[in-house]
Amino acid sequence: MNSVKVKSPATVANIVCGFDILGLCLDNPCDEFTLSLSDKVGVTIENIDEYNLPTDATKNVSGVALLKMLEQEKNIKGFHLISNKIIKPGSGIGSSAASAAGVMVAANYLLSKKYSKQQLVDFAIFGEEVASGAKHADNIAPAVFGGITLIRSNNPLDIISIDYPELFVTILHPQIEVKTADARNILPKEIPLKNAVTQWANVAGLVTGFMQHDYDLISRSLEDVVVEPYRSKLIPYFYEVKNACKNAGALGGGISGSGPSIFMLSRTAETATSVELAMKEVYSKTGIEFHTHISSINKTGVSVV
Ligand code: HSE
Question: Which residue of 86, 106, 151, 264 pairs with 6 in a disulfide if CB–CB is 3.0 to 4.6 A?
Fold first, then answer.
């Protein structure tokens, strides 16, 4: 096989209380990447979308991940990538991770699947670093593995797939840009022990809630006392949206990754639709352009099409 096309999904990092360690994979939207083996040394990139991302591989998230893999692959000269980004960069639903994860899974197909999923995440993290200035895997891991993942350790990587009950995700995407690097820079370097205790109790509660399919426990655990108080300031009407969604029946939710998207989890598709209406009602009064959508959780991650 000399060429392969993949669909690479959006993801929600953090899942409220699990900053940099929890993430879930969405069914939609998905980017599309066609990757081919090339006789040209290095990585050539052709963008067929509207986002004008760099075609210099050393400055491109997909390119950097592919170059990292090429360092290990002495028998391959290069790759040619046709990149069709659907997930808007800077939206908070893992656009850069989709770029890095998608091409790693595609390259692995061209290499007869010689690498494990965890190894693919390891390469992809270098691409993510280009976009966010930090090596975090909480978007890449769910994009590669599907479902809900826990990153117990970044170095060495230790990724655990977590069981979960049926869930529907409603997303509000205000049409403003929040750069992940900026949203990381505003966070305090240290946190009070009291907040740390609350936070790790909620992380443990959330993971247990997912695994035991306990919706009430999931709902109680979707609280963030560490990051949300700072980042919510970057998202206009954040608390109005959150309250309206809870009143509409959402289990809970918060900032998707580093924002500006807001996500809410619901037990049924019907509730997810009521939550979407609640989001629209709040945001249509703000004068800020926005999009909403509903997705279920993607069980498989990046897929070959
Ligand atoms: N965990 C990262 C952050 C995700 O919150 O900065 C960025 O999408």
Answer: 106
